[in-house]
Design brief:
The radius of gyration is 16 Å and the shape is elongated. Helix content is about 75%, strand content about 0%. The chain is an all-alpha fold. The protein has three helices and no strands. Helix 2 packs antiparallel against helix 3.
């Protein structure tokens, strides 16, 4: 996924949040918003891992290929797990009242 695509997905998430809640989430006492905070943290972690993979581990393929491949595999596994968490949260959001 290109950087532009990731930015677009994040922006649509922000717009969707504003449309559903009518405001930026700022009431952590709401279960919906607490879960939304967790989802935001997971998304930032996934994005950070993607950047780490692209700009740290991929260049290391030339100098330390075995370690770089192991790092990329581990990072990818963690991203998949975080992605499953995000999808689970999205499924839960569909069953919750955002207020």
């Amino acid at each position: 996924m290109a950087t532009r695509d990731v930015a677009l997905v994040i922006m649509t998430g922000i717009v969707n949040t504003m449309l559903v809640l009518g405001q930026w989430p700022h009431e952590p006492i709401s279960p919906y918003q607490r879960l939304l905070d967790i989802k935001i943290v997971l998304i930032f972690a996934m994005t950070g891992l993607a950047v780490l993979n692209r700009y740290v581990f991929v260049p290391r393929l030339r100098t330390h290929p075995d370690r770089a491949i192991a790092s990329i595999q581990t990072g990818t596994l963690v991203e998949v797990i975080l992605g499953i968490g995000v999808l689970a949260l999205v499924a839960i959001f569909g069953l919750m009242d955002p207020n």
